[in-house]
Amino acid sequence: MISFILSVLALIVGYFLYSKVVERIFGIDDQRITPAYSKSDGLDYTPMSWIKASLIQLLNIAGLGPIFGAILGALYGPVAFIWIVLGCLFAGAVHDYFSGMLSVKHGGEQFPTLVGRYLGKYVKSVINVISLILMILVAAAFTAGPAQLVEQLTPLSYSASLILIFVYFVLAAILPINKLIGKIYPIFGLVLIIMAVSIGFALFFMDHSIPNITLENLHPGEIPIWPLLMVTISCGAISGFHSTQSPILARTLKKESDGRKVFFGAMVAEGIIALIWAAAGMTFFGGPDGLQGALANGGTAGVVNEISKTTLGQFGGILAILGVIILPITTGDTALRSSRMILVELLSKFGNFDSKMKTILMTIPVVIPTYLLTQMDYSFLWRYVGWTNQVVATVMLWTAAMFLLQNKKFHWICSLPALFMTAVTSSYIFYAPEGFHLSYGTSMICGSIIFVSVLAWFIYQLKRNKNTNIPLDNVA
């Protein structure tokens, strides 16, 4: 169990050390007025304590992501621990921090607007579409599963369950953040933490020990680790969905120093949750083969249910049901809320959308396609969420890298993970079944061509930036 324990400790120590490095490079000032006060509107811009904001952020970015994704990632063996730790600290937490703090810096701007500010209007136009598609896909994928479980456990039909969930979605999307989300999300965030911590303690009493990282188990049979593992485990390592959620809480920070705890801290907490569930997946069923059989029989939700009930008894069963039903719904609703916010920001040049009636009208265009997609196969939806999600993450890292580069700051904390994720996404889409489904060798060649092209663009930006001696923050 040494690999698992050291991985958890690495994330904890990494938070206390590396988060301060990232914060110092970004440059905070608690004397600056945050958007929560300068734009206070009683709807989205509302001051909130960092503890409550952290729990809401954790629930927004997590849901069942670090549980389902980590269990699927456990099929690769203990190498999943390496990716979760390195991905979380040096890519995911940095990604989340900059997506939140750049939003704070620019008055609560949404992700696509931040992209346009640092990568140009053409990239912004593309990312506007991709972001909305991702939000709708996530909301649909995280709604169908809970509705199916409600149908199994209650007299309600699947359609009736969906209607109830979507009524809640609309309320969560249009009510002030401190009226519904601010009151119940901290409670659900605690449920997510209790669920993970309980399973974490139970791991020490399982019949099988958690496997350690060795040279022999680094490659799981015929499954290629690169780039599949980096897309399979996104939540818990790095997820572009988070960059659409961080601006929601960026509009609630009381001071800039809260950002390290809210954005970086929530991501590290999600990484620990992912480590726990990856370890449970590797251990409970006696190895990857046993886990594969369990997934084939009961799906990911069935695996979560079986692990929870067996290790924690009736208490675990209750947690599993709460988790599989509530947690994805709370991810889906904030996905639609951020969709509404992105759409309002996108259309703001055509008029004022601050009134409650216009807020409701802006919610309809994202709710309708989400509902229609819930009629499709869940696994089909989820396959397309994975790659789209990591593309968004890559774009956010490049946005942060350009911010640092333009302002003469140490950009490598963002540009190196951005280059890494560029290689992941460009090679994955050619190899994956939902992509071009080419042979592995051909996919790596095609991905390398895209990677080299992006690298050439970045080298050009480095040379161009040397000719600019004044940081943009100092330009009046």
Please write out the topology.
Layout: H1 2-26, H2 35-38, H3 50-61, H4 65-73, H5 79-105, H6 111-119, H7 121-153, H8 158-174, H9 181-202, H10 228-232, H11 241-250, H12 258-284, H13 288-347, H14 356-373, H15 378-406, H16 412-431, H17 440-466
Helix pairs in contact: 1-5, 1-12, 3-9, 3-11, 3-12, 4-12, 4-13, 5-11, 5-12, 5-15, 5-16, 6-7, 6-15, 7-8, 7-13, 7-14, 7-15, 8-13, 8-14, 9-12, 9-13, 11-13, 12-13, 13-14, 15-16, 16-17
Structural class: mainly alpha
Rounded to the nearest angstrom, the radius of gyration is: 21 Å
Number of helices: 17
User: What proportion of the residues is helical, as a percent range?
Assistant: over 70%
Q: What's the mean pLDDT score?
A: 85
What share of the residues does DSSP label as strand, in percent? under 5%
* Shape estimate: globular
Please give the largest β-sheet.
Answer: none
